[in-house]
Q: What sequence folds into this?
């Protein structure tokens, strides 16, 4: 089940980003998941629920945004309708996959400590 290794990578990246920004906690992850990525969203959610325990993402939600497959003609730059096949109706060129195979950690919601105010600045003052 490669969903486990994907979750491991997501958790590693979330932790790396959170630590680099001095975050205290991660509250959520937003993942864009392509229809042709070969990953089952339900299995990814299950693996995430299991493997987030003991990590900075232990209490974080996982939102998965499905991304449909989109094909386009590389010559005409026209998007092909899903039912049209994989050749351009105008020029007969073989279509190119534009999106739908991705697995992207698009957003991490985290809690970061307030930065100290610059010297000489008080509450509500502009420096």
A:
């Amino acid at each position: 089940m490669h969903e486990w290794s994907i979750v491991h990578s997501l958790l590693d990246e979330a932790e790396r980003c959170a630590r680099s920004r001095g975050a205290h906690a991660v509250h959520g992850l937003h993942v864009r998941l392509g229809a042709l990525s070969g990953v089952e969203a339900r299995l990814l959610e299950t693996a995430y629920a299991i493997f987030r325990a003991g990590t900075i993402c232990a209490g974080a939600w996982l939102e998965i945004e499905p991304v449909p497959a989109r094909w386009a003609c590389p010559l005409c730059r026209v998007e092909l309708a899903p039912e049209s096949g994989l050749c351009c109706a105008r020029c007969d060129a073989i279509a190119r996959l534009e999106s739908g195979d991705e697995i992207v950690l698009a957003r991490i919601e985290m809690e970061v400590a307030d930065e100290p105010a610059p010297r000489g600045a008080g509450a509500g003052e502009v420096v």
The beta strands are 23-34, 61-67, 70-72, 79-80, 96-99, 103-112.
